[in-house]
Amino acid sequence: MIHLNQLHEHLKSYEETYSGPIEYGYDSLNQLEDEFHYSEQLVESMYFAKEVKKTGPSSFLASFEKTYFGTVQILFPEPLINDTELEITIGEQKTDDKVWVRGLESRFGSAVGINYYHQLLTLPKGSKTYTVILPERTRPSERILPTYWKGGVAPFCYCEISGYPGELSTSNFIQKAVFHPFDDTLSSFVSDNEILNEVYQLCKDTAKATTYSGLFVDGYRELTPYEADSYINQLSWFSVSNDASIAKNTLNCLLQNHTWPTEWIIQTIFLAYEYYMYTGDLEYLRTIYPNLQMCTMSNLVNEIGLLDTQLLDEKTENNLGVITVRDIIDWPTSERDGFSKTRIVSQPEFWLYTKEGIRYKYTSLLAKLFGFDYASLLYSDLAEDKFSSRYRLASPNAVVNAFFYQALRYMEFISAEIGLLKESHEYKREADETKTIFQKSFINRKSGLVKDSVTSRHSSLHSNMFALDFGLIPEDSIDNVVLFLKSKGMSCSVYGSQFLIESLFKYEEQEIGLSLMTAEQQPGWLHMKYGLKSKLTTEAWSFYAKQDMDINHAWGTSPLNLITRYLIGIKPAKPGFVEVNFRPKFASLRRIQAKVPTAKGSILIDYERLENVVSITITIPEGVTVFFTIPLEADIATFRLDKKNEISANFDTEITINSGLHDISYEID
């Protein structure tokens, strides 16, 4: 990395030439109603190209080590001796020796979500340097970039230039990157599993690079904060950073700009709960409490006590600021594991929808045949809409009500924290009743599995993983549900992976959780890196699942927080990390060195397993108390803290460790 002050001497002799308007890969969509000004928080860094390949007599392809949001600057070895026509393309992907642009033949086919920018220009004689000025996108703010920054930014790691008559090397290409302040030294993870190490770094790179807007956005294709995206992104961000400002900015934005999925509006409460646990910011929690109450969507509870989206009315949607609220279960829709639907059109309308759907489908195929990939995608979406619009997701359903239940539990805690004990008791009562009704309505008594809806016989992965994750499965059904999830594998989206793997870790299936995070084939994070050749996590597992997905989507960073919060086992026990839970589930790993940031400073973990003997060294910041839960496989009789046996006869496997450097050891049964 090159810092600005280091480049000052190198660049001061160059007269800057800036670009004019350029073509870019896809249009901006709707902008948020409110402006958020974070420009002065952002930092700019510069990186030389890692490799430059000459691809023709006057053509070059520069590759950068990582994908960042920013632009490219080209430093010519000598001033141009003539007016020179150049063709410059930057982008996230390449095919052979060219930057991928829409319509270029590649293994991605119609992957229109991959970003690129292309420009033809004439540089005047005497030019020494050239910076591509990208068009500004007005979302998520009218002015998000630093005042010194000209134009907009785009995610890229490749730059192709054609028409230059001389020679160019790595020192002639600079990637100018913009991101939220980020201290790489606050967090780290290295284990004896190389794939897990790569997955961690891929996710950490994504968490850092995607913060250029000062918000947790859902990727460059839409540039909108969504509650579900932000929830996973926030957990991952707090796993590598103790800077809470971006999390607070995002929550502020979402409270004023809710998105359409029922479960995602409810997840606003999840965001607020985790923000408070990681920061201890009680005053902010008190300020937003009335908004959070609305996000429970309790007014949609039907006569038997289940949240039913069919009860939505215009008043509720207006209060939330959303035109049409509807359930989502998972996204993209192809990743819903056959979740139950209900027909909502009459028989004559059914055939009308089918006829129109088939027409759009054939139009899509024709457009693809003639090379109009974007048109093909649009008609394919119209066809899907016609076919899917004949049905709606069954409601009341198990997924929405699982989220509703967990939100009530969080509101029980939040209201107690701000001193509203009467409301806390009411939320507890409502949560307890919801759990009872959930189990009565959705648990299949014969199989023990969770049904998708009250009237459905189908049990999807999603109905079961969310219920297990949120503690809704009766004790005598847990084993059956866990076996069911294990048999299903990754039958969910990138988003769903957060809750699937989390639920497996919670119920001592860490080996399965580890195997899902380190899978070498699709679906998995290694496939993102080597199959899709992306330097950041992707929106979906493949372009077959979502043709217009982007490849800079931070909701794909779930392994980052799963490693930190469950495999290593570090989570706040009290708001602000005054007290910390340390519940490691190292699975089959034999060596780990990790650094986990907290609001009080970083916790250092050094774990080693030799044969059946485990040694852990933990360094705890000043003013922090750690509650260590001894893993189930440990032999209690051999447990030692700082080489002393501190286990009493009635010990319940949890011990208290104060700040400082401590050694833990035990043998595996």
Topology, element by element:
Elements: H1 4-11, E1 16-18, E2 23-24, E3 43-48, E4 51-56, E5 59-75, E6 84-91, E7 94-95, E8 98-99, E9 116-123, E10 129-131, E11 154-162, E12 173-179, E13 188-191, H2 194-209, H3 227-238, H4 245-256, H5 262-279, H6 282-295, H7 314-320, E14 341-343, H8 347-369, H9 373-388, E15 391-393, H10 398-417, H11 421-442, H12 461-469, H13 478-488, H14 494-506, H15 510-517, H16 525-531, H17 558-567, E16 570-572, E17 579-582, E18 591-596, E19 603-610, E20 613-620, E21 625-629, E22 634-641, E23 654-657, E24 660-668
Parallel strand pairs: 1-10, 17-21
Antiparallel strand pairs: 2-9, 3-12, 4-5, 5-10, 5-11, 5-12, 6-9, 6-11, 7-8, 13-18, 14-15, 16-17, 18-19, 19-20, 20-24, 21-23, 22-24
Helix pairs in contact: 2-17, 3-4, 3-5, 3-17, 4-5, 5-6, 5-10, 6-10, 8-9, 10-11, 10-12, 12-13, 12-14, 14-15, 14-17
By secondary-structure content and strand pairing, the structural class works out as alpha+beta
Percent helix = 25-40%
Strand content: 15-25%
Number of strands: 24
Q: Judging from the principal axes of the Cα atoms, what is the shape? A: globular
Overview in brief:
The protein is of the alpha+beta class.
Notes on the protein architecture:
- The protein has 669 residues and is an alpha+beta fold.
- The chain is 34% helix and 21% strand.
- Strands 1, 2, 3, 4, 5, 6, 9, 10, 11 and 12 form a ten-stranded mixed sheet that branches. The chain has a six-stranded antiparallel sheet with strand order 13-18-19-20-24-22. It has a four-stranded mixed sheet with strand order 16-17-21-23.
- Strand 7 and strand 8 form a beta hairpin.
- Helix 5 (262-279) runs antiparallel to helix 6, helix 5 runs parallel beside helix 10 (398-417) and helix 6 packs antiparallel against helix 10 (398-417).
- It is globular.
- The two termini are 47 Å apart.
- Mean pLDDT is 88; it is low at 1-37.
